[in-house]
Amino acid sequence: MIKHFLALANFSPSEISTFLDRAYSFSLFKKSPDKINHLLKNKIFSNAFFEASTRTRSSFEIAAKRLGAEIVNFSPENSSTKKGETVYDTLKCLESLGVNGIILRHSDDRLIELVAPKLHVPLINAGAGKYEHPSQGLLDLLTLKKEFGELKGLRVGICGDILHSRVAGSMMVAAKKLGFEVVLMGPENLIPKNEFSYENFDKSLSTLDAIMMLRIQHERHDGIFMNQTDYRQSFGLTVDRLTKLQKHTIIMHPGPFNRGVELDDEAIEHPQSRIWAQMENGVYARMSILEWAAEE
Ligand code: CP
Fold first, then answer.
1. Which domains does the chain have, with CATH numbers?
2. Which ligand 1 atom is nearest residue 54's CA?
3. Distance 285 CA to ligand 1 centre (A)
4. Which residue owns the Cα nearest ligand 1 atom 5?
């Protein structure tokens, strides 16, 4: 059976833990790359990104290279997409050319689940519309695990445009599977109505083990009914609000961030910030995904 990596929702708690353990073990090889750079030798993956990306695209490429695989980068801007080729036809073309797996980012929530059964190579979700961003989910979990050891019992706040966030989507799935608490904060019109509790940002900040700040996903809806200054005032992790955090609380953000809107420069560079560490952990998380996908 072809192993697709489409959503954390498709994996059991023990399977997610296996990815995390393997990602953690890859982090230990940072100073001895020769020990792992043969694991995916002769494998070729394709990065097929139909939406912009800095972190995910580069970290999948670096993850592949660290394991000895090669990457073919596909960009719709200079491809036959311009001549009317469909996404499905692009993916089938890459499969026919002989890649061992395709890493897909697309703005459509459900396209990835529709095309996956028609492919004969693993398909890896690198961000699907507002649905899930499971490799980001794994790197966020790895960041929490490295910090706290155990995920069970943690209280994680997510603040911002949760309604349109695939990052939050994967985090909420993970919370239910792995037994930690997620509380939602932000403008009421950008919070989904679900089983997670909606809390007041200022009141709850001091109760959290981690606070994940999110960007307003302007590209996925018609805008927020608040200007940036008012947004920062109500929901930004400002210098003043940093003083409310407990000493052990970590600051997270999936990136890209809008400095001075959802968080101040001081929050990004704060000693309790793990934002840059999240990006590093993304390489390890994606190494574990590529290795899993390439296993016969
Ligand atoms: N976090 C994330 O998905 O960032 P990119 O859009 O830069 O890949």
1. 8-133+280-294 (3.40.50.1370), 135-276 (3.40.50.1370)
2. 7
3. 14
4. 53
Place of tokens 């000895």: 68
Determine the distance separating the centroid of ligand 1 and the alpha carbon of 39, expressed in angstroms: 26
Q: pLDDT tens digits, the chain, 296 residues: what are they? A: 899 999 999 999 999 999 999 999 999 998 899 999 999 999 999 999 999 999 999 999 999 999 999 999 999 999 999 999 999 999 999 999 999 999 999 999 999 999 999 999 999 999 999 999 999 999 999 999 999 999 999 999 999 999 999 999 999 999 999 999 999 999 999 999 999 999 999 999 999 999 999 998 888 777 666 789 999 999 999 999 999 999 999 999 999 999 999 999 999 999 999 999 999 999 999 999 999 999 98
The closest-lying atom of ligand 1 relative to the alpha carbon of residue 255 is: 1
Residue nearest ligand 1's atom 6 by CA: 53
CA proximity to 154, closest of 164, 140, 167, 134: 140
**Is the Cβ–Cβ distance between 275 and 55 less than 8 Å?**
no
Of 116, 162, 119, 144, give the one whose Cα is nearest residue 7: 116
User: Ligand 1 centroid vs 89 CA: distance in angstroms?
Assistant: 25
Asked whether 257 lines ligand 1 (CB < 6 A), one says no
118 CA → ligand 1 middle, Å: 27
* Cα–Cα nearest to 68, from 42, 48, 89, 88: 42
With CA atoms as reference, report the closest residue to 135 among 181, 170, 176, 177: 170
